[in-house]
Amino acid sequence: MSSIPFPTKVLEDYGDQFLGPGLYGAVIGTAALVLYAMELRTSHAAGAPWRHVPLPAQAVVFLLSVGIARVSPAVAIYSWAAAVPLSMVAARIAARGR
Fold first, then answer.
1. In the prediction, which pLDDT does 72 show?
2. Is the distance from CB of 73 to CB of 21 less than 8 angstroms?
3. What is d(CA 7, CA 26) in angstroms, rounded to the nearest whole number?
4. Is 51 within 8 Å of 97 (Cβ atoms)?
């Protein structure tokens, strides 16, 4: 989490090049995966099945944006908006499993 300000500054300075959105997407996507792993671990320790933890839609969106940034950095930035509805869908799916 402490590394997030650096890619944010790189995004601010190089938002129109691959480096900005690519680095930001990689760091945020990795952070989301780490948080997902922590949530899986704590739910397992509490005795809950893994199906109760929503899938990491944010991680998927941000990590996919790294590839998109190779083609178009602006489209990669706009693709991050997909994280919100996909996270809502993932939460609903997880809620059905309860």
1. 96
2. yes
3. 9
4. yes
Distances (CA, A) of 74 to 15, 19, 29, 33, 78: 8, 12, 17, 24, 6
| Positive or negative torsion for Cα 78, 83, 84, 89 | positive
pTM, two decimal places: 0.86
Pair 9, 29: CB distance under 8 Å: no
Residue 59 CB-density burial (10 A; 0-12 exposed, 13-18 middle, 19+ buried): buried
pLDDT at 93 over 90: no
Express each pLDDT in 26-35 by its tens digit: 999 999 999 9
